[in-house]
Design goal:
Layout (H helix, E strand, L loop, with lengths): L19 H17 L3 E2 L5 E3 H8 L4 H6 L2 E3 L5 E4 L4 H11 L7 E9 L11 E10 L4 H18 L4 E7 L3 H15 L8 H8 L3 H4 L4 H7 L11 H16 L5 E2 L10 E10 L9 E10 L2 E11 H10 L11 E5 L2 H16 L4 E3 L6 H11 L3 E5 L1 H6 L1 E6 L5 E5 L3 H8 L1
Parallel strand pairs: 1-5, 7-8, 12-13, 12-14
Antiparallel strand pairs: 2-4, 3-4, 5-6, 6-11, 7-9, 9-10, 10-11, 14-15, 15-16
Helix pairs in contact: 1-5, 5-10
Bound molecules: histidyl-adenosine monophosphate.
């Protein structure tokens, strides 16, 4: 196709006007809520050393094994485009030493995974994420889940579902692995090759398999929580209790495991009916990540911005970009000069104003005002200049009145 050279790479998109208005809305709704909860923004590089991801997400995860964009730089260093935000933030926090002990950080921006592109699955996608550093504490976990739900609510989303489970402690995970091995062994022949390989590698990955054959087997074995300690189940109970206190609806999903290895204790996903069964809108959990000689613990989440915007659109919550408050139309050279000065002054006072810089005929100017979706048009010719007024036309009602130049702002504010 001749136009291919103007397209971004497959699975990646240019995000431009008018669609970008919905992105800005989601970003600003997120920031408002994140600041209310006392989180500060951190911006880590898109490119990191590969081992930052391999060590924290886990060597046998799909993200590390199949989905990372990796490269070697001229110095022979093995680098990767970040497939998620947590690892880079934890690298940053590890560098802060004691100062990072209770950091509450958030980030938003692009992530990269070499996945097969489809609706809601991109190779460059965007996340809003948070990491609240600190030792295991069910109250903090509940607070972070509440924060995530609140971000989605503030963005305008109504029908989200929170699924909650636990990964238990590192010791529980060893018990889960041996329990799973025993439970899955009789079904080995029924599993597809990929799941059989997972059984011999990282068996928890089998529980995360999405294909039908594996799903059918998984329904016949006990959920992972069967092999967990009472303490871990009590921890989960405590998280659930606090969520009830905070009036955050959730369902316990004992089969939920999530696809990254750094989790311990609480894990959750948030889904939306419009995205289908497999595609979570957001996911998070409590984790322990080792960086150098330090182990950093915390709890966090990331929401997929593309999927959140799809869910908002499915709920009919499309964001319409706003046009100019005022379009200045000029009849004649003298009015055009005055309008340029007036536009500058109004912009200085915070009004969104546009005009036709080339002074085309009135019909073309009005067409431009319509195309831009201006709320008002202010028309001036020699007569208006002489009287010190503007003919202000309300583009919704079509009503037009002469308004003294000094009253224009007041008029726009009082009637909008
Ligand atoms: P994750 O579940 O891998 O978790 O990703 C979080 C969200 O990012 C998903 O629920 C989804 O909405 C979105 N997402 C993931 N991959 C894609 C893709 N290829 N295309 C579009 N959207 C996608 C994490 O990334 C963890 N770092 C979350 C976390 C933070 N856990 C603790 N702290």
């Amino acid at each position: 196709m001749a136009s291919d050279r103007f397209n971004p790479l497959q699975g990646m998109s240019d995000i431009s006007f008018p669609e970008v208005a919905a992105w800005q809305h989601l970003e600003s709704a997120s920031r408002q809520v994140l600041h209310r909860y006392g989180f500060q923004e951190v911006r880590t590089p898109l490119l990191e050393r590969q081992d930052v991801f391999i060590r924290s997400l886990g060597e046998t995860t799909d993200v590390v094994q199949k989905e990372m964009y990796t490269l070697e730089d001229r110095g022979g260093r093995r680098l990767a485009l970040r497939p998620e935000g947590t690892a880079g933030v934890i690298r940053h926090v590890a560098g802060l030493g004691q100062d990072g002990a209770n950091a509450r950080l958030y980030y938003m921006g692009p992530m990269f995974r070499a996945e097969r592109p489809q609706a809601g699955r991109k190779r460059q996608f965007h996340q809003v994420g948070v990491e609240a550093i600190g030792d295991p504490d069910p109250v903090r976990d509940a607070e972070v889940i509440a924060l995530q739900v609140e971000v989605l609510r503030e963005a305008g989303l109504k029908d989200v579902e929170v699924s909650l489970n636990t990964r238990g402690t590192a010791e529980d995970q060893r018990n889960v692995q041996s329990g799973l091995r025993e439970a899955l062994e009789p079904f080995r022949a029924d599993l597809p090759e990929e799941s059989r390989n997972r059984m011999d590698g990282n068996i928890l990955r089998v529980v995360d398999a999405k294909d039908e054959a594996s799903q059918a087997v998984l329904e016949q074995i006990p959920p992972v929580t069967t092999w967990m300690s009472t303490e871990s189940l009590e921890y989960l109970d405590e998280v659930g209790g606090r969520l009830e206190d905070l009036k955050i609806p959730f369902s316990l999903k004992p089969r939920l495991v999530r696809g990254l290895d750094y989790y311990e204790h609480t894990i959750w996903e948030i889904s939306h009916a419009s995205l289908g069964a497999q595609d979570a809108l957001a996911g998070g959990g409590r984790y322990a990540i080792s960086m150098g000689n330090r182990t950093i613990r915390g709890v966090g989440f990331a929401l997929g911005m593309e999927r959140t915007l799809m869910a908002l659109a499915a709920e009919g919550q499309a964001v319409k970009p706003s046009g100019p408050d005022l379009f200045l139309a000029s009849l004649g050279e003298a009015a055009h000069r005055e309008n340029l000065k007036f536009m500058q002054a109004l912009r200085g006072q915070g009004v969104h104003v546009r005009m036709d810089l080339h002074l085309r005929n009135m019909k073309k100017q009005m067409n431009e005002a319509n195309r831009l979706d201006a709320s008002w048009v202010g028309i001036r010719g020699d007569a208006e200049l002489e009287q010190g007024v503007l003919q202000l036309k309300n583009m919704d009602t079509g009503d037009q009145t002469a308004v003294p130049v000094n009253d224009v702002i007041h008029h726009l504010l009082s009637t909008s």
